[in-house]
Design a protein that fits this description.
Strand order of the largest sheet of chain A: 2-1-3-4
Low-confidence stretches of chain A: none
Catalytic activity (chains A, B): acetoacetyl-CoA + acetyl-CoA + H2O = (3S)-3-hydroxy-3-methylglutaryl-CoA + CoA + H(+)
Enzyme class (chains A, B): transferase
Oligomer: homodimer
Largest sheet of chain A: 4 strands, mixed
Mean pLDDT of chain A: 95
Helix content of chain A: 25-40%
Family (chains A, B): Belongs to the thiolase-like superfamily. HMG-CoA synthase family.
Strand content of chain A: 15-25%
Protein name (chains A, B): Hydroxymethylglutaryl-CoA synthase
Number of helices of chain A: 13
Distance between the termini of chain A: 12 Å
GO biological process, one term (chains A, B): farnesyl diphosphate biosynthetic process, mevalonate pathway
Amino acid sequence: MTAVTSLLEKYNIDPKQIGRLEVGSETVLDKSKSIKTFLMQIFEESGNTDIEGVDSTNACYGGTAALFNCVNWVESSSWDGRYGLVVCTDSAVYAEGPARPTGGAAAIAMLVGPDAPIVFESKLRASHMAHAYDFYKPNLASEYPVVDGKLSQTCYLMALDSCYKNLSHKYEKMEGKKFSIAEAAYFVFHSPYNKLVQKSFARLVFNDALSDASSIDEAGKEKLSPFSSLTGDESYQNRDLEKASQLVAKPFYDEKVGPTTLIPKQVGNMYTASLYAAFASLIHNKTTALDGKRVILFSYGSGLSATMFSLRLREGQHPFSLSKIASVMNVSEKLKSRHEFPPEKFVETMHLMEQRYGANNFVTSKDCSLLAPGTYYLLEVDSKYRRFYAKKALANGSLANGH
Amino acid sequence: MTAVTSLLEKYNIDPKQIGRLEVGSETVLDKSKSIKTFLMQIFEESGNTDIEGVDSTNACYGGTAALFNCVNWVESSSWDGRYGLVVCTDSAVYAEGPARPTGGAAAIAMLVGPDAPIVFESKLRASHMAHAYDFYKPNLASEYPVVDGKLSQTCYLMALDSCYKNLSHKYEKMEGKKFSIAEAAYFVFHSPYNKLVQKSFARLVFNDALSDASSIDEAGKEKLSPFSSLTGDESYQNRDLEKASQLVAKPFYDEKVGPTTLIPKQVGNMYTASLYAAFASLIHNKTTALDGKRVILFSYGSGLSATMFSLRLREGQHPFSLSKIASVMNVSEKLKSRHEFPPEKFVETMHLMEQRYGANNFVTSKDCSLLAPGTYYLLEVDSKYRRFYAKKALANGSLANGH
């Protein structure tokens, strides 16, 4: 609710101008009632209930599915001229153990409409979807997932390979020339942790070397040629290949990936929002320099579903220019205004969350002193499991109640 | 899996021809991994993993969201020429009490592509989405929902009113004349139980009478005029209005709704599949007589989201003609081949389901004697909650294994 109201306010958009609202999330508040219906509270106030779209779910991929759905809607005959709005939101945690620091929470709202500065190259898109048990949440009573960390990483890299090969194939068919990392200015990855992003980009470089693409010079190809005979499975586990390809990839990584890593590195995993936080980092870092540039994004959700897709950026016109977007996002200030807590406090909070997960009949501390003005926060879950929120007053003193 | 493989076989479609697969469901097997990824097993076998789409969730509405997404995809620039496939599937139960008989289970698969015999009139569509606690599943550890039966019915009728008024308004703007029940040959409703369908259609007739539409004769309008001064809320509770409007609606109901009620009446509630089972009843009952006809559908999911939309039917060409669809569905035979069980047996099965809901480490009885050939069934959920299925041999002896 905070992300949606903030977006509407900052771009001065009447809630009546929204014709589609869709949520991507892997966080289950309710197994039947969608998160989208909670967000409808914002729009009901202005009398707008004619808003299509519900929740899209598959691990961290739901936001990408929601985004594609919204873009397709704008291009379809059922589009009614209004904006689409996509929300990626999660609060995801791990049981105690080495994976715990890769939990995280975030919400990102994106507006979709015609004549945007960020344009989909819809034909340049490839998916890889399969049945896998790498990360899943089958224990319905627990907030924690079941994770096979090693399998999850292999699944991610396999899906990446598959998407990259398929996208390259489609590009070659359309453009009559080979695709390689040289064809895009930037590469943005789903970023649960930065090491995986480094590995992922190195994997694309390895793919380019194998296909003898001109993006990699002879010295680089030579360094990677010893690994050309590895089977797929072997290559995902091979540490020497990992090191060699990251070394060859290094200068390209600094140029084409580095500018996308700011927020994921600072904030950690954000699940459905992760890829778009990385993309936001790029807009923050490069802004007007992105005019005319192609950006390739790779979205991954365990289970598994993955898509690699292409965007073409242009400066665009106020209020939807890249400069305006960068200034509205205000990334530097937001990063600076975070609060630091000791791990003990986090563990304590997690114990409280464990008790309250799926529970009813409790009130929260209602302490909103650390929240930014305009933030919605949970007040109470009543005996019928109904959730009540309040909104922290804005600096100018106005207050809304989410009851 | 049964519905998808059956559709592909009966229409002789190569799994490689599917470019989008999307599931609508309110049944949570896993909070992160989508049902769609389970279905990918069918397509991985044929080497097709480039299939977009995940799961859409909001109570019984998820299937409609998935269907709209698929149709929009075919109309968008990201369509790659292949078919879309939509699956509506649920297994939903109630705790002991009066609502228990309204539980149910079903799976319906629908193919989406160009030049179809069932065509969307995309501009003739109106949604009503809002934040409500009429039926929801906040207790994550339990398979049973929290239900406010009376509120749920009021929400349904309010959403119906809102959609009908908005759709009528859009129609009038486009066509320059009033919309009324006379403008469509058939009306199909989300059908948890038949009494609600009768009430719903009577509500449309009441709306027509209030707006002085020519669809209702003077005698009918006179019968309903005493209720014209009721507020919305009063009118949802008024038993006399209910009786009077159903009486006025009766001849129209028999003609425009009766042919849609066969399967929902025989099978009971089917959740996301309910609306489409009602629509299948219509195709079964009227088949070629539907050529050129407009059909209005009303989809409702608690929480809440609802859309009223319009389809235009035509006989179409083999293999996607209405006659072929009716013969493939083979509704009469399927209804005849059901098995009857005493309520005690059902209660016993429910106890077993309660124990196994969200559980791991169990094997099923593997008794598939009552299943139709080609049906997938659960064998085992292992210690890591991984689910293993088998497929009952087809009559010709071929067997597939879902491991």
